[in-house]
């Protein structure tokens, strides 16, 4: 058992130090350090990645301070990465900055040495509800029209600010992993006929599988590998005013087993499929 002394740590500092310790305990990455480096950012901007005094590993003691105890003999699940989301609102706000400041902001977020080293970012397949313009998918059509062969599929709208931010983040952190989630398939695939609410019609399961496959292929062609996708963001959420789509667990199972999985295999796509992307509210 090893104990780390802790000096009046804020919640943000506690999170950062815990993340550093977690990484340090993976022998395949680093040996356990004799000191733990600390950087602090505050909400009011007074400190921005401010270098603080190091913390040292110490043997257990009866010191009258809080401690973080690490049992190196017991391990749990591995951590794939730590990150956030390159959603439309985030990227659009970054584009309100002059390019040098924008690049510096991205570097501070993802660079493993000159930033906080976020390495797992979520992307949106089409638009999410966090967007400053009209919601869209990659194959929007007038009411009553369908496009099962996806002839009009296009990621062109992502070129405004999404693709540039994602590509810049890869420049600063080439080891970054991306996973992508849809809020809604095109409205013509759905029982509601709208991006808000409704379900995917079973007769369009094949088209939806091709839609997700085309997304991965289109982003790969842009130099952006997709490590994993989810079938649906919050499949229990139904809201008519922004993109949502209802799925049951059984429906996702049948869609993956009967359509998406076989198509990935046929097309040689190695992206992982993560099932049941649901934040449960209590």
Order of helices and strands: EHEEEEEHHEHEHEHE
From the coordinates shown, what is the CATH architecture of the largest domain?
A: Alpha-Beta Barrel
Q: Percent helix among the residues?
A: 25-40%
Largest sheet: 4 strands, antiparallel
Output the structural class.
Answer: alpha/beta
Number of domains: 2
Low-confidence stretches: 1-30
What this model shows, in words?
- The two termini are 35 Å apart.
- By secondary structure, the protein is α/β, with parallel strands linked by helices.
- The protein has two domains: 69 residues, no CATH class; 187 residues, Glycosidases (TIM Barrel), CATH 3.20.20.80.
- Helix 6 links the parallel strand 9 and strand 10.
- It has a four-stranded antiparallel sheet. A four-stranded parallel sheet has the order 7-8-9-10, with no helix packed on it. The chain has a two-stranded antiparallel sheet with strand order 3-4.
- Helix 3 packs across helix 4 and helix 5 packs across helix 6.
- Helices cover 28% and strands 13% of the residues.
- It has six helices and ten strands.
């Amino acid at each position: 058992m090893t104990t780390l002394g802790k000096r009046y740590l804020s919640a943000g500092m506690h999170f950062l130090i815990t993340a550093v310790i977690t990484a340090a305990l993976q022998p395949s990455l680093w040996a356990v350090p004799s000191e733990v480096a600390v950087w602090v950012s505050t909400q009011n901007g007074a400190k921005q990645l401010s270098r603080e005094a190091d913390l040292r590993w110490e043997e257990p003691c009866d010191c009258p301070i809080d401690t973080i105890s690490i049992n190196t003999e017991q391990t749990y699940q591995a951590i794939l990465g730590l990150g956030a989301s390159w959603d439309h609102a985030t990227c659009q706000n970054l584009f309100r900055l002059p390019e040098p400041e924008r690049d510096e902001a991205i570097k501070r977020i993802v660079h493993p040495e000159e930033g906080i080293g976020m390495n797992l970012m979520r992307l949106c397949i089409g638009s999410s509800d966090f967007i400053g313009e009209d919601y869209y998918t990659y194959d929007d059509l007038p009411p009553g029209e369908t496009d099962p062969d996806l002839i009009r599929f296009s990621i062109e709208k992502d070129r405004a600010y999404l693709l540039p931010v994602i590509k810049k983040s890869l420049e600063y952190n080439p080891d970054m992993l991306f996973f992508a989630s849809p809020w809604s398939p095109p409205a013509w695939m759905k029982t509601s006929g709208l991006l808000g609410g409704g379900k995917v019609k079973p007769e369009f399961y094949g088209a939806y599988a091709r839609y997700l496959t085309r997304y991965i292929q289109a982003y790969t062609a842009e130099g952006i590998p997709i490590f994993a996708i989810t079938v649906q963001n919050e499949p229990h959420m139904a809201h008519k005013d922004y993109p949502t789509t209802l799925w049951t667990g059984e429906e996702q199972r049948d869609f993956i087993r009967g359509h998406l999985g076989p198509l990935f295999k046929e097309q040689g796509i190695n992206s992982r499929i993560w099932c049941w992307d649901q934040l449960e509210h209590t």
